[in-house]
């Protein structure tokens, strides 16, 4: 009898302890979600290239980190400077906010203002500060974040990092150590900022398809070097909706087309160095100080071609483009070393930039026609 009483007492005690732990865990989540926030403004950069002054920026407070539903509290602001900076005066008490920018933007491939408008969005936790940037990455990850939070019940911070990695995976970039996308900007100096610049250029890229020789040719006319706001919007939609539920982008054709176009960038000095000069003109620092985005541009198409790593250990090796959807499928590429002691004005010659990179053996000749390091085999 005493044993039964003892056993029942222990069972009752265990239930109390488990109940207390469960209540405590739930309370911690709720308390964290309801963390006190008091902000009188939100500032940041809205960038594709920078959105033009006067573009509209809208902010909604969100209920919590589990539903991410918009509340009735909304605030409006404008882009106030040429570098895309905005400020929204508000009385914010929610930890989570949604922001959207809509307007014309400056093109880093052309330099001119876009012919059409673009809309980008982001969702962010403002418990640690009032700086939130809006860019292509925050837009691409937005649907994925909502799905992870509302359907798979991930906590907000985990959902943000997961969605960011999923987006960068589309462009063959490892984002393991990157800061959150809403903290990145075109004028930043980190590797993550360089990756943002690269993704921005990739998605805006454009070329003319030549049916006769089945190749993509980048136009010498500035206005034809970017795809335009309408096509960019379509590309963003296709990627963001495709990765929303399973994290994987399944439309190989779009990414391969972009790889075929970007592969031609290092044959266009005015594009490669032009991106840097436009960023400087927009007030993001000296062109020499712009982070090393070229690495991610070349890594993107080389990975899409199945070429692997080009570095000091693989210089001189030759590999074949294995992508069956590429217009350069079967072409041989050789790993080229960077030239040394290059004058800054010749920083980008026909053969690229200061890093190691793969070069098409069919294009291994300089303007004089006497430079051909591609192996004969």
Reading the helices and strands in chain order gives HEEEEEEHHHEEHHHHEEE
Sheet-strand content, in percent, reads 15-25%
The count of DSSP E runs of length 2 or more, i.e. the number of strands, is: 11
Alpha-beta classification: alpha+beta
Tertiary shape:
globular
Count the helices. How many? 8
Oligomer: single chain
Give the rounded overall mean pLDDT.
85
Q: What spatial order of strands do you see in the largest sheet? A: 1-4-3-2-5-6
Keywords summarizing the entry:
377 residues; alpha+beta; 3-stranded antiparallel β-sheet; 6-stranded antiparallel β-sheet; 18% strand
SSE blueprint and pairings:
Blueprint: H1 2-33, E1 39-45, E2 56-62, E3 70-79, E4 85-92, E5 96-103, E6 118-125, H2 136-150, H3 156-170, H4 191-204, E7 208-210, E8 215-217, H5 229-246, H6 252-262, H7 269-281, H8 294-304, E9 318-320, E10 332-336, E11 357-360
Helix pairs in contact: 2-3, 2-5, 6-8
In short:
This protein has 377 residues and is of the alpha+beta class.
How would you describe this structure to a colleague?
With 377 residues, this protein is α+β, with helices and mostly antiparallel strands. Among the domains are: 1-33; 191-363, no CATH class. 34% of the residues lie in helices and 18% in strands. It has 8 helices and 11 strands. The strands form 3 sheets. The protein has a 6-stranded antiparallel beta sheet with strand order 1-4-3-2-5-6. The protein has a 3-stranded antiparallel beta sheet with strand order 9-10-11, covered by helices on one side. Strands 7-8 form a two-stranded antiparallel sheet. Strand 3 (70-79) and strand 4 (85-92) form a beta hairpin. It is globular, with a radius of gyration of 25 Å. It starts with a helix and ends in a 17-residue tail after the last strand.
